[in-house]
Automatic annotation (TrEMBL):
Keywords: Cell membrane, Ion transport, Iron, Iron transport, Membrane, Transmembrane, Transmembrane helix, Transport. It comes from the Bacteria. The keyword Ligase does not apply. It is a multi-pass membrane protein. It is found in: Cell membrane. Pfam families: FecCD. This is Iron ABC transporter permease. The keyword Ribosomal protein does not apply. One of its GO terms (molecular function) is transmembrane transporter activity.
């Protein structure tokens, strides 16, 4: 298992080095800092999405679902649309980046907390009911966003459209520090729960029989998922199929149930996927598309493959 992680770490280091130094010419002072900022954003985003997806799939015992099903991506787009609809596009573009980041993450966390608190109190900790309500709320948010986007000025819609697609081309460096601190803190908090995930993957009844405090641990894991998804979405925008793609490739490549290896593998594979997609955007498509378009295209095809495979 360690040999596989060494292989992934080597490929990751090679991809990052290639991205940082290819065609840099004599403009080290100008080019290198900007590429380093992109790599930091890629590491934060890839780590957050990869880890949160594996936690979510372990809790739900379903390798096709991702945290996007609970509607956080749709809520993020609704927040951007409401700001433009009420206050105008200039407010969104001129707003302090840290304040905008904290508002977006804060509202997504409030939504997650209300959803979890309400359902865990009213519905007897039924996680599938939570997924159903999250899916409905996500559809509602998406519908309201589409309705408001039709009503706003076309020029202002272009500002909202930029938020629809994840992009590392213009990473806001002001957000990297607060995002890094947030990911490190939530990572340290998450360390205490890793030991439970191998047991949780056996199912709710088996986990309870083995002495795991299922309800309390699952509730905390769901909040960790909400924080990680909120940070990655607010940092670069929604990337719908990255989690599905990375998590399933990790399962097949690592071939283990031990989550400490799965998490490490998912982080490496996420970084490799995002760096590769960003190099395609810059070298092949000449910035005419975005990372999320490439990832969602590949991830969507992989999703269809998984559905056809599971149906046999």
């Amino acid at each position: 298992m360690k040999a596989k992680l060494i292989i992934l770490a080597t490929i990751t280091a090679a991809m990052i080095s290639l991205f940082l130094f290819i065609d840099i010419g004599g403009y080290w002072d100008y080019v290198l800092p900007r590429r380093i900022n992109k790599i930091i954003a890629i590491i934060l985003t890839g780590s957050s999405i990869g880890v949160s997806t594996i936690i979510f799939q372990t809790i739900t015992n379903n390798k096709i679902l991702t945290p996007n099903i609970i509607g956080l991506d749709s809520l993020y787009m609704l927040i951007q649309t409401i700001v433009v609809f009420i206050f105008g596009a200039s407010t969104l573009t001129m707003m302090n980046s840290n304040i905008h980041f904290l508002i977006s993450v804060g509202l997504m966390l409030v939504f997650s907390a209300l959803l979890y608190t309400f359902l865990f109190k009213r519905e007897g900790q039924n996680i599938y009911y939570l997924l159903l309500v999250g899916l409905i709320m996500g559809t509602l948010f998406s519908s309201v966003s589409s309705f408001m986007q039709i009503l706003i000025d076309p020029n202002e819609f272009l500002v909202v459209r930029d938020s629809m697609f994840a992009s590392f081309n213009n990473v806001n460096t002001q957000l990297l520090f607060i995002s890094s601190v947030s990911v490190v803190l939530i990572g340290l908090y998450f360390l205490r729960f890793i030991k439970y995930l191998d047991v949780l993957s056996l199912g709710k009844e088996q986990a309870i029989n083995l002495g795991v405090s299922y309800d309390a641990i699952v509730k905390r894991l769901l909040m960790i998922i909400a924080v990680l998804v909120s940070i990655s979405t607010a940092l670069v925008g929604p990337i719908t199929f990255l989690g599905l793609l990375v998590a399933n490739i990790t399962y097949h490549f690592m071939g283990t149930y031990q989550h400490k290896f799965l998490f490490a593998g998912s982080i490496f594979i996420s970084i490799i996927s995002l760096v590769g997609a960003q190099m395609l955007v810059e070298r092949v498509f000449s910035f005419s598309t975005s990372v999320s378009v490439i990832i969602n295209l590949v991830g969507g095809l992989y999703f269809l493959y998984l559905l056809l495979k599971e149906s046999k």
